[in-house]
Amino acid sequence: MEEIIRKRHPNSLPALIYAAASATSxxxxxxxxxxxxxxxxxxxKKLEADxxxxxxxxxxxxxxxxxxxxxxxxxxxxVKANNLGANSENKESNYQPKTSGIExxxxxxxxxxxxxxxxxxxxxxLTNQQMTTCHRAVKNLQKAEGHAIxxxxxxxxxxxxxxxxxxxTKIQELAKTVEVLQKxxxxxxxxxxxxxxxxxxxxxxxxxxxxxxxxxxxxxLENPEPFPATLDEKCYQPNVFxxxxxxxxxxxxxxxxxxxxxxxxxxEKQKVTLQAxxxxxxxxxxxxxxxxxxxxxxxxxxSCLKVAHQKELExxxxxxALEHSSSKVAELTNKVSTQEKxxxxxxxxxxxxxxxxxxxxxxxxxxxxxxxxxxxxxxxxGTNLLERGWTFYHSGVAPGERRRAGVGILIxxxxxxxxxxxxxxxxx
Length: 428
Hints:
Elements: H1 2-8, H2 13-32, H3 35-105, H4 109-203, H5 207-212, H6 214-222, H7 229-233, H8 246-280, H9 287-323, H10 328-373, H11 380-388, E1 391-395, E2 403-404, E3 407-411, E4 418-421, E5 425-426
Antiparallel strand pairs: 1-3, 2-5, 3-4
């Protein structure tokens, strides 16, 4: 009745009521089943329909093959029958003319009967042979047909079995993917519930927090930021790290802490040295001029050292190349260089032994110079520092100079050395 009403009166109230009821029942059935199960059922139905279609195609092809085989069999049987008939006619025609003259001339009527009987026997024998050959041909054709059908059926069965195995594997893979997707969906739902709980806790503070942080809460609620998308995408696993291990990170943190401590100590040392320099600045009147002289002297000295360093590097490279080369010239140069080094060492030792008294004299002269400096008015601060425990080291003066700029170093008992300048003065 329902189908009749729907077909004849589709826009009537009963038809609409039936349609709504069937739609709700279908929705309930679809809601009970998950999407993955419905997808798999649809896929299985499609595969079954494909298999049925392939079975029908195979049956049709088998029927066509059988019809062709039967036609070939009938045609072969007819050809063989015609050949046998033609052979028998040829034999009879060849046999009859030979016996006809003998029958007329020599044989009586009784002999004619005997010849007819022999012909009949011969014809029966030929017919029997034809029948046996036909039966054998039919049996052979039936056997060949059976073998061909069996082979064709076995090939079709194997092919269908392979297709079934492939489709079963596909179904298993789809089931695994469905399980993985269901697990991910569950984890996402659990993460969403946790995030919602945390968000509720954050958005619902206590009364004291509301009173103390009204402005901050209003700003936070005006533009709420959602939870990071990384937790929505993946489940947190504490044992899995995207980058380095925690031990490596801790070691790097310790190294950085040590470097920071070293930098702090260096800054403190620099502060102490700067404070000492500031303390000594009032005691030095011509400090600026002497500092400029020292800077120029230091720059010239650095440039000379760079040139000497470059020359020394070139000399070492050439010497290394000569020493490590496999030739007699290199061996001879090595021997000569060793002898030269020994000679230079002995010469340096002798020269230093000869210069010892001169150096002692220069030291005594420097001491006298320092004592003379104490009498001058410009070095009252220097004498006071020397009395307090400071030590003065003279430098940059060649022996025999009558007029020079004395540049030395004053060293505090507990601080780093500080450059100290002396005014120009004449000896004697």
